[in-house]
Amino acid sequence: MRTIRIEAPSSDGTGTDTDGARPGPGRGPAPLLAGAAIAVVAAGALLALIDSGSPLRAPCTLFFLLAAPAGAIAAARRGPDPLGRAVTALAGAIVVDLLVAQCMVAAHRWSAGGGVVAVTGFSLLVLLVALLRDRARRGRPRD
């Protein structure tokens, strides 16, 4: 008969837990919640663009209209404070949505699909500018 020893996790966090899972980044509910949010965002955009009659269309599209520009603004914003970054991103997303709606109503071209396309274009543009800025900073030598 063999005795199996169960070691306690080390105090520095480099060992493995008793259940065999490794500690560290990417472990926990955050990646799962991020994946679920991305799925809801994609479903919202798709349901709005195909003009579905599903009861999930309105809440998923609303989540898309808030999450897409908020994610892009949060990626573009610098600063160590995560709460300030989140508040700024959410406020910016609301401003973007209201400006897109106002422009579409003023042009007499209001449609949910058109709003989704406009917000997607704005979000992709902001994200692209943020990525290019980060790439330029990485390539520049530090003083």
Description:
With 143 residues, the chain is mainly α. It has helices at 29-49, 57-76, 82-106, 112-139. It is flat. The N and C termini lie far apart (65 Å).
Keywords:
mainly alpha; 4 helices; 143 residues; flat
Q: What distance lies between the first and last C-alpha atoms, to the nearest angstrom?
A: 65 Å
General shape: flat
Mean pLDDT: 83
Q: Determine the fraction of residues in helical runs and give it as a percent range.
A: 55-70%
Please, how many helices?
Answer: 4
User: How many strand segments?
Assistant: 0
Secondary structure category: mainly alpha
The arrangement of helices and strands along the chain is: HHHH
Uncertain residue ranges: none
Residue share in β-strands: under 5%
Biggest sheet record: none
Rg, alpha carbons:
22 Å
